[in-house]
Amino acid sequence: MKLEEFKPVNQYKAINWNEVSDMIDKATWEKLTEQFWLDTRIPVANDMDDWRELDDDHQWTVGHVFGGLTLLDTVQSEAGLTALKEDVKTPHETAVLNNIQFMESVHAKSYSTIFSTLNTPDQIKEIFEWSDTEEYLQNKAVKIANMYLDPSQDPLKKKVANVFLETFLFYSGFYTPLYYLGHNKLNNVAEIIKLILRDESVHGTYIGYKFQVGLRDRTEKQQQDMKDWMYNFLYELYDNEEKYTHLLYDQVGWTDDVLTFIRYNANKALMNLGQDPLFPDTASDVNPVVMNGISTSTSNHDFFSQVGNGYRMGAVEAMNDSDYDVKDPNAGKDINACD
Ligand SMILES: [Fe+2]
Ligand SMILES: [Fe+2]
């Protein structure tokens, strides 16, 4: 914020969770805190045998898919949630967005947990160089980030950008681990992705809901303009996403299936925003192996459904001296991995 825009406050109000004006804030807070997780609890090293069986082309796709996802979660954890917090209706919304922002940092970090297990230092370096420079990946990251970063941008459009990222643009990447999960491969990597997907599903629904609440206050003309803009923006993103998908998947021959999957998810993004679907693709058009990866996962794809992921928080117990007896990390043991 520029100095001349600063207006000092003469009062600051404490957040009161006993007076919640929008119950969706409270329900979302409870849902998100209930499903809290950390990447360090998933034993990715157990996937090494599956990983070694993949040929170079498939390993390349997996590594670069996760490079792309790292970039998108970085955008969300930095510019994305910072922008959304500029336009809240309730203090509880800020609290929910704080939770989301932290989890986006967990998501962004969790891919590094995967890289550090599966990839060599040289491969990791190459993946990050690729993510920071690849044209179609940068196109989508920059398009969304510039919506967030522009202080003159309509806050409702920032919410649209957010939902498009959460519910649409991630899915060209999510396809790969779900595909392997459907084939009973890379199950621990997939577990991380399922936990991310479960979070993104709540994030997309919540921000979509806040968008719909905000849109109701606009005139009919403004609502129509917003709708026109939204569909154009989606087309623009889809056009780029097609090219990105070819780049990632042509060499393994999955491109058409991935494109069906992302059109299906683009429709879901529109649904979160209270709009009609754009593409004819439905769940029955998506590769059943991938749908199986979603449905046999214990992750939920619907807001407020019961927390059902296989991941469990550790039972809480008092610490004692032996808790400090950690193994020597130089001995090559992962001290964080659970059994
Ligand atoms: Fe995320
Ligand atoms: Fe998210």
Helix and strand topology:
Blueprint (H helix, E strand, L loop, with lengths): L22 H12 L13 H6 L2 H29 L6 H28 L2 H13 L1 H15 L5 H15 L1 H12 L4 H30 L3 H30 L5 H18 L15 H8 L44
Helix pairs in contact: 1-4, 3-4, 3-5, 3-6, 3-7, 3-8, 4-9, 6-7, 6-10, 7-9, 7-10, 7-11, 8-9, 8-12, 10-11
Q: Please trace the helix and strand order, writing H or E for each element.
A: HHHHHHHHHHHH
Structural class: mainly alpha
Largest sheet: none
Count of the separate structural domains: 1
Number of helices: 12
Bound molecules: fe (ii) ion
What's the overall geometry? globular
CATH class: Mainly Alpha
Average predicted local confidence, pLDDT: 88
Low-confidence blocks of residues: 296-318, 326-339
Beta-strand content estimate: under 5%
Radius of gyration: 21 Å
- Tell me the distance between the termini: 48 Å
CATH topology term = Ribonucleotide Reductase, subunit A
The CATH architecture assignment turns out to be: Orthogonal Bundle
- The helix content is 55-70%
The number of distinct β-strands equals: 0
CATH superfamily: Ribonucleotide Reductase, subunit A
Active site: 111
Binding site for Fe cation 1: 73, 104, 107
Family: Belongs to the ribonucleoside diphosphate reductase small chain family.
Function: Provides the precursors necessary for DNA synthesis. Catalyzes the biosynthesis of deoxyribonucleotides from the corresponding ribonucleotides.
Describe this structure in words.
The chain has 339 residues and is mainly α. It has one domain: Ribonucleotide Reductase, subunit A (Orthogonal Bundle), CATH 1.10.620.20. The chain has 12 helices and no strands. It has helices at 23-34, 48-53, 56-84, 91-118, 121-133, 135-149, 155-169, 171-182, 187-216, 220-249, 255-272, 288-295. Helix 4 (91-118) packs antiparallel against helix 9, helix 6 runs antiparallel to helix 7 and helix 8 (171-182) runs antiparallel to helix 9. The termini are far apart. 41% of the residues are buried. The protein binds fe (ii) ion (FE2) (2 copies). One fe (ii) ion binds next to helix 9.
